[in-house]
């Protein structure tokens, strides 16, 4: 017997229709690439996304065609989120921090038909347009008069001119909710980048899940600042959850330094912000140097790489801001776990609570997870046993775009497919997961594993350390031994011996790194994560002390 409820596909257009009807006057504020502050609202975003839809139809793009963006977080990018996907075309967010060659490869692989870019990327587009063989339409996200006459890109139009002539009425089409809505490439460690191809259904379920109180906890009373870029896993889905709950959204544009982010948080009364640890490092540095406090910020979601305990403590103890440590990945739309205490844990001492909050957290409903050994056998949730972390759920990929890399899933006895995350983790009896490492970064010393994250976290707790990366170095007896590569805070001093001393009593003796290497900078990838592969390459001639 079938249920007798209305059958409506879960479509991204539903989100913008809802946001306009129920939260039309709620503000969308953006710092533009020009540096000024632009004010819009959900009704205006909805109206202009309908103009985008009409403009795409006028270009003759087919259902499922890819429309790429090369843009910072801002209102025009938001309009494209709804305008492109709402018509059944696929929004392809390109990461402008990639090498131009890689961008060209990705645009060609995705077979992008149109590409919309922020004016700050005009030099980049000038350098690559002739190699993007499938892109027929170039759209600069600016006013008509901001286009220089000598841009040299055939058919380039300004976004404002492109949509200006279009009607602002549009009937969003209804189609299969499993249709592709957007895509994001993830750079694997080997081979070419592969794309996660999200569907309308996966995006809407993720929008519901992410908004839950024990996930990101979004509401109409929030002003949310996604510092995490809209080109990286759809800014963790915040534009969609934001439309679902009708919150104010505040976009930082390209200004991600501590001062700019702080000023935006204060001026726009931001209640929640989300980003990777490196961004918060800059923000905390700015606050500390200038003796500032937050007046409205209540919580900040930190994920993308392990959040150092020192950062969680600084936000909590010095600024009264709750850190929600979150874990996920491009292949997971991206949300997997968020760390919120359970009821019984509210009676724990502050130190015990902090120990829980350092973990990556509990699975959001919609995500199931398990840890397994090398034979694929499930391991116990005892907080000690570590294994490969596998996940399944309706917003986790079943395969990569164009089937690249074959079938990525591992199947259990019931034939259910689990996605191997490439992370090594422990899970405790309350279901709190803690990432020990990326499987490729874990250090194997004398048959035991050393978590590079643990080694980094201790260094990061030292007041003179701005950034720390732990990598394994070949050792004839132990197989590998850890070293820690450190960037000092400006003006701060610490010696090798002092830092090694700092480890004493904080971890087992054999887990203390063999050496400290001070560097000016640690290479960061296109999404702000430390690039250990590049770091290993830079240190290829390094020899461990005593060898
Ligand atoms: P990406 O798909 O580029 O977002 O990278 C996903 C990977 O980032 C995960 O598989 C983890 O290795 C890492 N990651 C994300 N969030 C966290 C976190 N909170 N703690 C530790 N690692 C994380």
**Small-molecule components bound:** adenosine monophosphate
Radius of gyration: 24 Å
What kind of oligomer do you see? single chain
Relative helix content: 25-40%
Q: Which structural class do you get from the secondary structure elements?
A: alpha/beta
Taken as a percent bin, the fraction of beta residues is 15-25%
The first-level CATH class of the domain at 31-175 is given as Alpha Beta
Count of discrete alpha- or pi-helical segments spanning 4 or more residues:
16
The second-level CATH architecture of the domain at 31-175 is 3-Layer(aba) Sandwich
Q: In which order are the strands of the major sheet placed?
A: 2-1-11-10-12-13-14-15-16
Uncertain spans: none
Question: Looking at the structure, what is the overall shape?
Answer: globular
Instruction: Let me know the largest β-sheet.
Output: 9 strands, mixed
Count all strands and give the number.
26
Describe this structure in words.
The chain has 547 residues and is an alpha/beta fold. Among the domains are: 31-175, Rossmann fold (3-Layer(aba) Sandwich), CATH 3.40.50.980; 442-538, 2-Layer Sandwich (GMP Synthetase, Chain A, domain 3). It has 16 helices and 26 strands. The strands form five sheets. It has a nine-stranded mixed sheet with strand order 2-1-11-10-12-13-14-15-16, sandwiched between helices. Strand 8 and strand 9 form a beta hairpin. Helix 10 (258-267) packs across helix 11 (277-290). The longest helix has 18 residues, at 42-59. The site of adenosine monophosphate has 21 residues, from strand 14, strand 20 and strand 21. Belongs to the ATP-dependent AMP-binding enzyme family. InterPro entries: AMP-bd_C, AMP-bd_C_sf, AMP-binding_CS, AMP-dep_synth/lig_dom, ANL_N_sf. Residues 455-529 form the AMP-binding enzyme C-terminal domain. This is Fatty-acid--CoA ligase. GO terms for molecular function: ligase activity.
């Amino acid at each position: 017997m079938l249920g007798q409820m209305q059958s409506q596909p879960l479509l991204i257009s539903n989100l913008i229709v809802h946001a306009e009807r129920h939260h039309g006057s709620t503000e969308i504020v953006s710092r533009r690439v020009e540096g000024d502050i632009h004010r819009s609202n959900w009704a205006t975003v909805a109206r202009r996304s309908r103009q985008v839809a009409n403009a795409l139809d006028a270009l003759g793009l087919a259902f499922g065609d890819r429309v790429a963006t090369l843009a910072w977080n801002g209102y025009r990018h938001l309009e494209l989120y709804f305008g492109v996907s709402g018509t059944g075309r696929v929004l392809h967010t390109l990461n402008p921090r990639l090498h131009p060659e890689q961008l060209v490869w990705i645009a060609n692989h995705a077979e992008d038909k149109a590409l919309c870019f922020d004016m700050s990327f005009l030099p980049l587009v000038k350098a690559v347009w002739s190699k993007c063989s499938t892109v027929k339409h170039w759209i600069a996200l600016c006013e008509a008069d901001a286009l220089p006459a000598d841009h040299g890109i055939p058919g380039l139009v300004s976004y404002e001119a492109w949509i200006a002539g279009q009607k602002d009425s549009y009937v969003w089409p209804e189609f299969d909710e499993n249709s592709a809505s957007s895509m994001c490439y993830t750079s694997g460690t080997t081979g070419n980048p592969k794309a996660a191809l999200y569907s309308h259904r996966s995006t809407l379920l993720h929008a519901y899940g992410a908004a839950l109180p024990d996930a990101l906890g979004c509401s109409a009373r929030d002003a949310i600042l996604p510092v995490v870029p809209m080109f990286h896993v759809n800014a963790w889905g915040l534009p969609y959850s934001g439309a679902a709950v009708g919150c104010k959204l505040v976009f930082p544009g390209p200004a991600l330094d501590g001062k700019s982010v702080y000023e935006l948080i204060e001026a726009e009364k931001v209640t929640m912000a989300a980003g990777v640890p490196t961004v918060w490092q800059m923000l905390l540095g700015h606050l500390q140097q200038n003796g500032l406090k937050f007046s409205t910020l209540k919580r900040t979601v930190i994920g993308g790489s392990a959040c150092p305990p020192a950062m969680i403590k600084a936000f909590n103890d010095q600024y009264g801001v709750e850190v929600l440590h979150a874990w996920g990945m491009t292949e997971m739309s991206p949300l997997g776990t968020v760390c919120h205490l359970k009821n019984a844990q509210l009676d724990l001492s502050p130190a015990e609570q902090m120990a829980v909050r350092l973990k990556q957290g509990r699975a959001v409903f919609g995500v199931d997870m398990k840890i397994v050994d090398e034979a694929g056998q499930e391991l116990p949730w005892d907080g000690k046993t570590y294994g490969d972390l596998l996940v399944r759920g309706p917003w986790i990929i079943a395969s990569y775009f164009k089937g690249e890399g074959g079938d990525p899933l591992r199947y259990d006895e019931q034939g259910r497919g689990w996605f191997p995350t490439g992370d090594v983790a422990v899970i405790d009896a309350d279901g709190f997961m803690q990432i020990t490492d990326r499987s490729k970064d874990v250090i194997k010393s004398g048959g035991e594993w050393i978590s590079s994250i643990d080694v980094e976290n201790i260094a990061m707790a030292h007041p003179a350390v701005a950034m720390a990366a732990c990598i394994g170095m070949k050792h004839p007896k132990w197989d590998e031994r850890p070293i820690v590569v450190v960037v000092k805070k400006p003006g701060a001093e610490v010696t090798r011996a002092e830092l090694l001393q700092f480890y004493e009593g904080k971890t087992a003796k054999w887990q203390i790194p063999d050496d400290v290497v001070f560097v000016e900078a640690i290479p960061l990838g296109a999404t702000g994560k430390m690039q250990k592969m590049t770091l290993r390459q830079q240190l290829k001639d390094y020899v461990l002390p005593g060898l």
